[in-house]
Design brief:
Blueprint lengths: L2 E5 L6 H14 L4 E4 L12 E3 L4 H4 L2 E6 L1 H14 L3 E5 L9 E2 L7 H4 L4 E14 L2 E8 L2 E6 L6 E7 L2 E8 L1 E5 L7 H4 L11 E7 L9 E4 L4 E5 L5 E5 L5 E2 L5 E15 L5 H18 L1
Parallel strand pairs: 1-2, 1-4, 2-3, 4-5, 5-6
Antiparallel strand pairs: 7-8, 7-18, 9-12, 9-16, 10-11, 10-15, 12-13, 13-14, 15-18, 16-17
């Protein structure tokens, strides 16, 4: 098994966590890759160095070291190549991490076959101008509909299977996977959904209404989001750079055919991880 290490060295603990991984991999004589630009940071590593864009083809497993953003970005790229991802936390919370930064010695279990693969549902968001598809995007966490640079209400109509669900006026809406239910949607008052359950969660953001509540749809539901004319609305997939929605235009959100595959070495249950991470985040905020 060949692995590729993708560290986000802007994270304070990423350098040390990556070096501990390298030490373990070299001790067990496991082949591994690093991007060419990491050679200066790890000059003594017995790695094969290759352009970052080629790593996904060369390896069997991606190990992303950083926070949730790093892990999600690596996972979205890995989906295109059908490769699983192991996240190592070098950030603060990192719900998607399979190992904490001090647990890198457990990487031996990967080569001993002592792991499982957690297949997470993805969303596909397709942007249309009239009947013409302008782009298609995969989302691990969420597709967020929000304003583009102006402090004014966003007005959106949401349909499921061609039937109107609601009109929303506010800061926008979040359409999330169960994985994304612990991200922006949670901060906006949405529920936590066990990622073993497939479904599509719609969470309004600061709606100008008395009774706007999150809604959970079945995974086979196809949602269509249509901004009001002149709305100047932007689509954000997993907090990546925004995509302006054409005027007139719409976005069709559905369950993607692919899954994001995350390696789990430990046997922690989802709600154990959730409680541990949220309590840690609360403690960190108190110290700050």
């Amino acid at each position: 098994m060949k692995v590729a290490l993708l560290p986000n060295l802007t994270r304070e603990d990423a350098l040390n966590a990556t070096q501990r991984l390298i030490d373990t991999l070299e001790r067990i004589d496991a082949p591994f890759f690093l991007a060419l630009e990491e050679k200066e940071s790890f000059p003594a590593a017995h790695a094969r160095f290759a352009p970052r864009g080629e790593l996904f083809e060369l390896c069997d497993v991606i190990i992303a070291i950083g926070g949730d953003g790093t892990i999600i970005h690596a996972a979205k790229q890995a989906v295109r190549f059908g490769k699983p991802v192991l996240g190592v936390n070098a950030g603060r919370l990192a719900f998607m991490a399979g190992l904490e930064g001090h647990e890198t010695g457990l990487i031996e279990n990967l080569f001993n076959g002592c792991y499982t693969v957690d297949k997470r549902m993805l969303l596909q968001a397709e942007v249309f101008s009239g009947d013409r598809r302008m782009g298609s995007y995969l989302c691990i966490n969420d597709a967020v509909f929000g304003r583009a640079g102006q402090m004014k209400l966003v007005e959106l109509t949401v349909e499921c299977g061609g039937k109107r669900i609601n009109n929303y006026s506010g800061d926008g809406i979040i359409i999330a996977t169960p994985t994304g239910s612990t991200a922006y949607s949670l901060s906006a008052g949405g529920p936590v959904i066990d990622p073993g359950i497939e479904g599509i969660l719609l969470t309004p953001v600061c709606t100008h209404a008395l009774f706007a509540r999150p809604l959970l749809f079945s995974a086979d539901c196809v949602l269509t989001v249509t901004p009001a004319p002149g709305g100047n609305v932007t689509l954000y997939c997993d907090a990546d750079d925004g995509t302006p929605i054409p005027d007139p235009g719409k976005v069709v959100v559905s369950k993607a055919a692919q899954t994001a595959d995350f390696i789990r070495i430990k046997t922690d249950r989802f709600f154990d991880i959730l409680n541990s991470k949220l309590m840690r985040g609360s403690d960190t905020q108190k110290r700050d």
